[in-house]
Amino acid sequence: MDTCNKISKFMLRNGYECRVMGVPKTIDNDLFGTDHCPGYGSAAKYIATSIGEIYHDARVYDTGMICIVEVMGRHAGWLAASAALPRTVGARAPHLIYLPEVAFDPEQFIRDVKEVQSLTRNCIVAVSEGVRLEDGTFAAENFQSGAVDAFGHRYLSGVGKYLESLVREKIGCKVRSIELNVLQRCSSHLMSATDVREARKIGSYAIRFALQGHTGVMMVFERVSNLPYMVRIGCKPVSEIANREQLVPRAWINKQGNDVTDEMFEYLLPLIEGEVPYPTQNGMPVHFVLNKSIVE
Amino acid sequence: MDTCNKISKFMLRNGYECRVMGVPKTIDNDLFGTDHCPGYGSAAKYIATSIGEIYHDARVYDTGMICIVEVMGRHAGWLAASAALPRTVGARAPHLIYLPEVAFDPEQFIRDVKEVQSLTRNCIVAVSEGVRLEDGTFAAENFQSGAVDAFGHRYLSGVGKYLESLVREKIGCKVRSIELNVLQRCSSHLMSATDVREARKIGSYAIRFALQGHTGVMMVFERVSNLPYMVRIGCKPVSEIANREQLVPRAWINKQGNDVTDEMFEYLLPLIEGEVPYPTQNGMPVHFVLNKSIVE
User: How high is the ipTM of this complex?
Assistant: First the structure.
């Protein structure tokens, strides 16, 4: 949005009539000034669906296991928070959720896992890739510098592998880590109908607002109510928004820092609502491809 | 199927009238004597869909990248082979596919990647977790013993991480590895309608065959034709089948050992055909849960 701000100012200064509109878009959902960002609802739906499936997969086996799922999000925990949603459709997982908004304490993490193990044989953990220690360094940073591959190189692993290693070391039980990786941002076969509808709408409103004379603004969603779910589309000066992050409010994370609260469910559930049918061929989704051509 | 064989013989020997029927089920698709196994088509559909999405994700960026996708399969390459399918719906990937049926040569792999890079900026590689070197050891084995984590433990990484490290070392370009992990076996939101229909059918035929007097047999699919797709359900003595693996025929892998041939497409495409609608609640699939109770 910073670029949007600069271009808009440049155009105004040079008397060139061009309206510059910012339309938010990020699965990270961390843009300031809007209730949520297009893209987020679909990524959250993929994460929630996957965590539900991982839970049911683990449930089949009688030997207990710790399963750590690493979710995207370097600074904000919005994506990892969506891992909580399967609990509303019968899954008794994940048991623990760690977001970057709260300092991560490896020793407390081990105590948390042990406590879950005292109650149930499987423990599913969702963790943001960006969780940091009290001193501000990424939790996996020390681990990474210690790990060396066959070529003597620093092994760049994520926080999932780090916690897997930590559990193996400190608890010694069966443990696995799963990195949802790029599929959480590109699994278009599992889009949220709400997200897709809103993305189209906020784009068309941006055109309408531009025609009304707005420039240097970002289009935003304002939440009117959760139940029924209602949002209003408006715009805010980019200068008020650029370079600011929207983190998960501390009040939406439980006191112990290992789960989300009811507010998060109320916020999130409407965003993943509805399925989007997609065209298939040979049993696979057909993707719409834009050819990139150089315009002379 | 070995257990099925033993129980059947025991029952016959002891004059206890109990028919023992084997019904195949494995996403690995490596049971001998049947054209394919229930479960495989759905896993293949998930893998094909994911590879297609990964391709379109990579396509967005102008900086070239090598993307290595690790697919399940310790002994047989059936699952990794399904990565080829997105090519039939417009994806120009994956560029390279490595199966355990052909000895893996790390130096040839690097040459293969370089050749792809000379033609296109992105290179997507699908690799079976079970690829082995000429001497029979797993390709990632040496790598694993070299890697040590922060606790001084052997780092148990997969072949994807190994090849990622190899590319970084030998080519030095941007590279990423993705492990599809357990989601390829448990993503029930993406089942093949053909697979689900056949699974029900082969189960009901097993009952029918048992009532006709068969015992100590495994139910099998026999492929009648690819186009139109037709299978016949029969049974074979478990003694002929147990402890034998069905690998990908060498003729279905290209000469260089880095891709599959047309025969694989003809075999595979019918198995992933059709979508299965599923009940949803709160925007997520609802899973049917069997409570495990101890029968006194």
Answer: 0.93
Report yes or no: B82 and B268 within 8 Å, Cβ to Cβ: yes
Predicted confidence band at B3 (pLDDT cuts at 50, 70, 90)? confident
Partner residues linked to B128 by β-bridges: B71
Q: Which of B174, B215, B217, B223 is nearest to B198 (CA)?
A: B223
pLDDT (tens digit per residue) in A10-55: 988 999 989 999 999 999 999 999 999 999 999 999 999 999 999 9
**B185 to chain A: closest CA residue:** A57
pLDDT of residue B150: 53
Assess whether B28 carries a catalytic annotation: yes
Q: Are the C-beta atoms of residues A96 and A116 closer than 8 Å to each other?
A: yes
pLDDT digits (tens, 9 = 90+) for B108-145: 999 999 999 999 999 999 999 999 999 999 988 866 54
Domains of chain B: 42-186 (3.40.50.460)
* Count of CB atoms situated within 10 Å of the CB of A295: 3
- Residue A142's pLDDT is what? 67
Residue A101's pLDDT is what?
97
Q: Strands A284-285 and A280-281, how do they pair? A: antiparallel
Find, among B141, B133, B75, the residue nearest to B104 by Cα: B133
- Closest by CA position to B129, among listed B170, B77, B165, B164: B77
Q: What is the pLDDT of residues A151-179, one digit of tens each?
A: 555 545 689 999 999 999 999 999 999 99
Q: Smallest CA–CA separation between B115 and chain A, in Å?
A: 23
Q: Are B271 and B27 contacting, i.e. CB atoms less than 8 angstroms apart?
A: no
Using a CB-CB cut-off of 8 Å, the residues of chain B touching A153 are: 165, 168-169
On whether the CB atoms of residues A8 and A21 are closer than 8 A, the answer is: no
How many Å apart are CA A131 and CA A248, to the nearest integer? Answer: 13
**Tokens linked to A229:** 């779910």
The backbone torsions φ and ψ at residue A285, rounded to the nearest 5 degrees and listed phi first, read -65, 145
A56: chain B residues, CB-CB within 8 Å = 186, 188, 287, 289
CA dihedral B275, B77, A52, B178 (to 10 degrees): -110
Query: How far apart are the CA of A260 and the nearest CA of chain B, in angstroms?
Result: 17
**Residues constituting chain B:** 296
Q: Is residue B13 scored above 60 in pLDDT?
A: yes
